[in-house]
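Reading is simple: each integer encodes one residue's backbone shape. The lines below illustrate:
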Amino acid sequence: MRRTVALRLYAGLATTALAAATGVVLSMPEASAAPGGATGYATQNGGTTGGEGGQTVRATTGTAIHQALCNRAGSSTPITIQVEGTINHGNTSKVSGSSCNTADDRIELKQISNVTIVGVGSGAVFDQLGIHIREASNIIIQNVTVKNVKKSGSPTSNGGDAIGMESGVRNVWVDHVTLEASGGESEGFDGLFDMKDDTKYVTLSYSILRNSGRGGLVGSSESDLSNSFITYHHNLYQNIDSRTPLLRGGTAHIYNNHYVGISKSGINSRAGARAKVDNNYFEDSKDVLGTFYTDAAGYWQVSGNIFDNVTWSSRSGDNNPAGPDPQSNTTVGIPYSHSLDRADCVPSVVSQTAGAGKGLKVSDGSCSPQTPAPTPTPTPTDPAPTPTQPGGTNLSIGAGSDGSGKADGTSYGNVRDGDMSTYWSPSGSTGSVSIKWGSPTTVSKINIREAAGSEGSIRSWRVVNHDTGAVLTSGSGAGVITFPQTSLRKITFEITGSSGTPRVAEYETYAG
């Protein structure tokens, strides 16, 4: 009966699918694709800004999406790709280039960073074609529908995952998307939202996952425990068998979600996973929280949840539901701020905000959906903000420096000579410059000072601990940049987007 309902729901959706369109990539004015900004764990590890500060292009085919990625100056050059129409196997081909690594049978975001894919206009539908994120960072996917992706049968795509992440992925925000199938594994479908092989700092927000055997997993097996720091909030899980999500190891924050028609098991915390489960509404479902199908226990901290017509099976062997009276068995600290809606209003709030085509509406914790104001994007004519000179000693004076390719006539040493008339420029529109010391040095603040006549050229950037590769912070616009005190030998300022020719006159570093 349940599968019949799922198929009927999908058949109705299929009749409204958009017709396939010819792909075109056009230069567009820069636009903010994600008003309100990332939330949850995607705000950590330097944050998630996607293609902020870069070029915006339009695509109506999968090939055009790949072409936009491959046309960039480099694999980390920021770009926002606005998608409209139906993306499918017939209009998605591999495109080659030094800034991309694409494939014919999926949308491939592989070995790249600083990308936003956002549905616009009459909508974006990825029909039987999954989105694959691999060895990538700082990715935003917003306001799109991905449906009917299969791992068996025909056609197949992305291992059956609507959205799948693997192999060292960092900082992904998936927001206001609709992910759906029309059956379970026996019908050829797999997970809607999967993470494995060292994926961290991910948020899934204001989204719909429905009509599938498997909602999603974190960790592909009991030995894949390298994934962590995932936030799920204000999502609708509807007509799902299990995995809402399945957690193997790591930490997850699950709040203000609405679960309806979970038929086998819901949040499955196992193999040492720790889940903070706050103010969710579970309805007409079975075994919505616990450790299932394994004797490797997981843990949870629960508060404020509502269980409406939820049934619980008996505990035995590898079946350990948390109910019928779920109690916390661990404590989970959350490092970011967030506003909780009351659980009793979650069904109403989620129904008005979750999924593609909802106008990117969000909740501010007042149980009342809000339409966030778009974040303004600076233009080259905007005056650069006047930085406040930090106090203390500029540690760059007397230090060493190096970086990526430099423009003719410039020098890395010019950024640490105390002279505003000399400068370093990258050989293109993006590049990096580093300050380095012979022994570990504590730094918590830098001041990027642009040369006269080039103020405002630097658009987006990242500050990286070169010793470890960790992103200390990211943002846009030059000036004073702060981050937690860090002891390191080398700190890199990476320009990921610019207008005109960036010129760094001074790269000052300070202990506090």
Q: What stands out?
A: The CA atoms of residues 224 and 506 lie 44 Å apart.
